[in-house]
Design a protein that fits this description.
The chain is built from 12 helices and no strands. It is mostly helical. The longest helix is centred in the last third of the chain and has 23 residues.
Length: about 260
């Protein structure tokens, strides 16, 4: 038996994803100034996401660090090595998908079926969205809608859809959800190619911010946090997003001068 670390939150997935989101920036800060305080901060973040036993947090943290190293070092060997580590641990943590047998305390086999019940919530959300595809049910009602329509889940626990895209569509309809995610995706693609040419003193910070925003993008498909104003995940995400947008725009302006 094990107890999942929750930190200052009530949800271990929350502290896990928060740690995974800020990990590239914390790691950048440690590389910038190697002292005891920054080492302690890095160790605390790694401890938080590892002992939260959040599979999504672990996978997204490896993804974020892989992108950070790729952009900062331009070494394809290191990039593919980290991707290999990501795939190996993905197979370990989703043991029932790949037939890997490890101790229960490491694999959380009791909740690995159906993405810990997320597929049930996603299917229910899609049913509700199909009933009101364009206007949704109103902003801020995601945690109430399943209870209101008396959904009974076998595996899923909690009141949220555990998917920001479906959560937005559930509240506001398909059009706002598609527009927001399409803009986010285009920003990530354009920023990636612009950062490939960054040579300014702020390049390393921009790489870390991009890795954090990219990690947040992927975690948004497994947790509902994007539209929670003032939440533990929304605050660092929008802060990193605004900083990254400013640095990318600064790099664009510097190249045109």
């Amino acid at each position: 038996e094990f107890t999942r670390f929750t930190g200052i939150t009530s949800n271990p997935n929350g502290i896990g994803i928060f740690s995974a989101m800020i990990l590239p920036v914390v790691f950048w800060n440690f590389r910038r100034r190697k002292n005891t305080l920054n080492l302690f901060l890095l160790a605390a973040v790694i401890f938080s996401f590892f002992y939260s036993f959040s599979r999504n947090a672990f996978i997204c943290s490896v993804l974020g660090l892989s992108v950070y190293f790729y952009l900062s070092a331009r070494q394809h060997g290191a990039f593919f090595f980290l991707v290999s580590v990501f795939l190996i641990f993905a197979m370990v943590l989703y043991a029932d998908w790949f037939g890997v047998l490890l101790p229960r305390s490491l694999t959380r086999l009791e909740s690995s079926d159906f993405l810990s019940g997320r597929l049930e919530a996603w299917q229910a959300a899609l049913e509700l969205i199909r009933a009101h595809p364009f206007r949704g049910y109103g902003f801020g009602i995601e945690e109430l809608v399943f209870q209101h329509f008396d959904y009974q889940f076998q595996q899923h626990s909690g009141a949220y859809a555990h998917n920001c895209f479906l959560g937005l569509a559930l509240q506001l309809g398909w059009i706002p959800a598609v527009v927001i995610y399409l803009a986010w995706f285009i920003f990530l693609i354009r920023s990636f190619f612009r950062l490939m040419w960054v040579q300014s003193q702020y390049g390393a910070l921009a790489f870390a911010l991009y890795a954090s925003v990219l990690s947040a993008f992927f975690t948004s498909f497994f947790e509902s946090w994007f539209y929670t104003a003032g939440g533990i995940l929304a605050f660092p995400f929008f802060t990193f997003m605004m900083l990254l947008m400013r640095l990318v725009e600064f790099q664009k302006s510097a190249r045109t001068v």
